[in-house]
Amino acid sequence: MSRIILHMDLDTFFVSVERLQDSRLNGMPVLVGGTGNRGVVSAASYEARAFNVHSGMSMKMARIYCPEAIIIKGNASVYSDHSRTVTEIIKQRVPILEKASVDEFYADLTGMDKHFGCYQYAQELRATIRKETGLPISFGMSNSKTVSKVATNEAKPDNRIKVEEGNEKSFLAPLSVKKIPMVGDKTFQTLCNLGIKRVRNVQELPLEMMSSVLGKNGHSLWQKSNGIDTSPVIEYHERKSISNERTFGKDTIDIAMLKTTIEAMAEQLSFQLRSGRKIAGCISIKVRYSDFNTYSKQARIAYSSADHIMIPKALELFESLYNRRLLVRLIGVKFSEIISGGYQINIFENSIKTANLYAEMDKIRQRYGSRSVMRASTFGAKSIGGVMNPFNGEPPILLAHRSA
Question: Fewer CB within 10 Å, N or C, the chain?
Fold first, then answer.
């Protein structure tokens, strides 16, 4: 049985949400992101893109390219709420859903042609989303995730494309090789230096040659360029989570130590999210008292993996849950509603400098251990999740709160 893979993407998601709230933005060049010169463009409307403005560009440069742009700081919580609404609509109507990011979805519709016309069904799903949310959304359909994603990008804005089985190579051939999802700026430049600019150039080369130039990535690029991609749609589970707990050797009422431990666990879990290029939409705190009664509290947040967002929220939940009259036996932190995330810090309020700081901190942690760089306030947490600080004999680098 041939696979039928649907890819859906909310068009200029952040901008579209802002336009729902203020119709005066329709048809105007709009930028969402950090409003200062050191801020980053998170999303650009198609009107702004006509001036060569794109996401990831510094806001200072964007202003030069498009001085008439309307700049909005953005509200990550509002965007997260809209993302969840769209997720619920799709999840109720497809057999297998993968939420690839806050605005991107895959669905496996294989076998549904026995009862529905899958393309017609996808069009009706798209119409439902547009009607119930007011958000524009595009989709691509084919027999693989790669081709469907490329088709979606070609269909934008607010449209759809179906690539019939057997036409995958001919559909991809005339496109820039940069349209293949795995090709970044560095790989694209390497390919251009070899005279490879179109997907058809890759299709015409022997697999062995691509592998010799780019190794495993070359093998994967050749397959995807030829429409070969058997990767499955990974079912989205809203409760997917990571967590950390600590049982104390002696029940305690030391509030400073409890807070330090919460901070350290949240810091470590945030690092784990960023390492896997994930973001979380929910934080939970658990407290078990000396009488073994256990209580928990959770809160949904704007999708994030930034320490300076996750840690304060974890502490806020702990303080609202903690009963100071009782000794504590165990505390725990859990991050859930985990999805893939392209923006790993809240770029609506932080600069490129902050993003670079997180990147450098994580590089040190990946090389020397997850606790080799930490906030000064978490240094007292000597053992998190039963694992001692892996300093290899070297003292950790300490950061003040305001550093990140």
Answer: N
Please, which pLDDT band fits residue 237 given cuts at 50, 70 and 90?
A: low
- Same domain, residue pair 247 and 350: yes
Catalytic residues, by residue number, are 104
Q: Tens digit of pLDDT for each residue in 333-348?
A: 999 988 876 544 454 5
pLDDT for res 378: 56
Residue % of the chain over a pLDDT of 70: 83
How many other β-carbons are positioned within 10 Å of the β-carbon of residue 21?
10
pTM tops 0.85, yes or no: no
77 against 12, higher pLDDT: 12
Radius of gyration of the CA atoms of the chain, in A:
24
The CATH number given to whatever domain includes residue 141 is: 3.30.70.270
Whether 120 and 180 share a structural domain: no
Q: Is 322 exposed, middle or buried (0-12, 13-18, 19+ CB in 10 A)?
A: buried
Residues 258 and 345 in one domain: yes
Are 248 and 329 part of one and the same domain? yes
Question: Which pLDDT does position 271 carry in this prediction?
Answer: 87
User: Could you list the residue range(s) of the whole structural domain that residue 226 is in?
Assistant: 166-236
E strand or H helix at 160? strand 160-162
- Residue 134, CB-side half-sphere exposure with 13 Å CA sphere: 12
The predicted model gives 172-187 an average pLDDT of 93
Give the residue among 252, 294, 268 at the shortest CA–CA distance from 378: 268
Secondary structure (DSSP) of 258-295? HHHHHHHHHHHHHHHHHHTTEEEEEEEEEEEETT--EE
List, for residues 102-120, the tens digit of each pLDDT value: 899 999 999 887 767 899 9
Residue 23 contacts residue 51 (beta carbons within 8 Å): no
Place of tokens 């007292």: 380
Q: Residue 52's pLDDT is what? A: 95
pLDDT score, position 368 = 64
Interhelix angle for 207-214 vs 185-193, to 10°? 120
Report whether 80 contacts 71 (CB < 8 A).
Answer: no
Domains held by the chain: number: 3
The type of residue at 185 is: D
Residue 271 near residue 360, CB atoms below 8 Å: no
In the numeric block, which tokens belong to residue 387?
A: 């694992």
- The three-class DSSP label of residue 77 is helix
pLDDT at position 339 is 83
Q: What is the DSSP letter of 44?
A: E
- Taking CA atoms, 138 is separated from 127, 129, 148, in Å, by 10, 11, 11
